[in-house]
Every structure is written in structure tokens, then in C-alpha cells.
Amino acid sequence: RRAVSYRKIEGIPGDWGTACNVQSMVFGNLGETSATGVAFSRNPATGENKFYGEWLINAQGEDVVAGIRTPNPLNEETKNPHNQNLKSLQVEWPELYRQLDDIRAKLEKHYRDMQDIEFTIQQGKLYMLQCRNGKRTGVAALNMAVDMLAEALIDEQTAVMRVQPAQLDELLHPIINPAAEKTAAPFLSGLPAGPGGACGKIVFTSVDAVAAARNGETVILVREETNPEDVEGMRAAEGILTARGGMTSHA
User: Fold this and answer.
1) 38-50 as b/e, with b when 16 or more CB fall inside 10 Å?
2) What does the pLDDT look like over 85-116, one tens digit per residue?
3) DSSP designation for 58
4) 247, 71 in Cβ contact below 8 A?
5) Does 147 share its domain with 99?
6) Which pLDDT does position 115 carry in this prediction?
7) Quick one: pLDDT at residue 99?
8) Are residues 164 and 128 in the same domain?
9) 227 partner at 20 to 30 Å CA-CA among 9, 81, 147, 154?
10) Residue 80 phi/psi, 5° resolution?
């Protein structure tokens, strides 16, 4: 059921097959000289041309993206008030970071689009697992299209096609008044994982979120962490708040 719901949300046909990859394995959980991470060749939230990502020592990829642990920042530019005391890959293993930074530049030049990169460090050696065109917010899509056109990575027609109608709609999402943000004293703060601002009644299960939405109520789904079981509740809720996870979590 959740797979059917997800396909409907993302507009994926139900008759497509499932790909199967067969490949050798490398492991990021072989001790303190191993790690895994997810990175974006540009900031997927703002579109800035800055290397962005998260990583974990002695972990597998699922630990980073599943939202069950809060990962370390990839570099000093990725740091925020919530992870500023955690070591970045740039500081902890500078040579491996330089290798990764060189690779991200080559990948973006080849694919001519922002890349979502997954990597593993096994006992001090860097391995690239996969890359793909990265998901991005509407603001990021617009900024990247303009910047890549200026950098001669793409032409005008490609730049226009890079910004989808749904991403333009994101630019119209309600936001918190910037002036109020400067004067307000927040009760709590966290990592922004999506565009816009939201308010509503708190619910703690996806079932309650769906039921409330059907009754015309606006709700915020609060979870310790999200998982595939929550896909319908995440769709129904006006906003989502989790206790764990990072900016690159799949949820």
C-alpha cells in the first residue's frame, strides 16, 4: 500500500519494473578508519555553488539517510548551530576530502547538473558508490539554472527546462515573516529540510494525520524518525518534525 501511495505522490507509473544492481561491496563500518556519507555538488536547499553533505564514521549508508542518527557535517560550510561541534570530513581527513571535492567537480562537469553523491571510506580509502541528479527545492532549482547558464554549463533552453512547474509553486509557499524571525524568541529550533513555513495541530501518528486532513484540519506530524510507513501521513501533514536525522535524510 505505501509503495502504491508513493508512486501516486511522485507520479511514477505502476507498471515499471524494478532495477537490480549487482556490484562488489565496500564497508564503512569496519572501525574508526571507515565511514560513509552523502554529498551534493551544490547546496540542494539554496542552490549555492558550495559542496554540501553529511557523513558518519564507522557506519553504513543507511545510517546517514534513514534519519536514525544525526550525522557530521561534510565541511565547515555545511555546519549549522546543531552540528557545529561535530568534526567535519574536511578537518578530520583533509586528503580524502580533497579527493572527494575533485570528484564532485568532475561529475558535475560531465553530467551538467547538480549531483547527489554517495561515498564510502573503507579503512582509509575513498570509494564512490553512485551519483545521480540531485533533488532540490524550488529556490535551489531557479538559482542553479541561472548560475549554470552563467557558467556555460548549460544553454538557455536547458536552463528554462530545469525549473519544473511544481518547483515554481514552491516559491509561493507561505513563509515566516523575516522581520518577525529577527525579533521572536523561538522555543526550539532545528534543521530546515523543506521549503516554506507551516503551522498546525500536533499529531504523533500517520493514521491521525490522514484522518485529521480528511476532516479539514491542518496538522504537523511529529515523529522520533520517519520511515516508509509514514508516507501517507507525510503527504497529509502540513509539516513534519522529527527528533533525529540530518539534512540529507531521505524523508
Assistant:
1) bbbbbbbbebebe
2) 899 999 999 999 999 999 999 999 999 999 99
3) T
4) no
5) no
6) 98
7) 98
8) no
9) 81
10) -145, 175
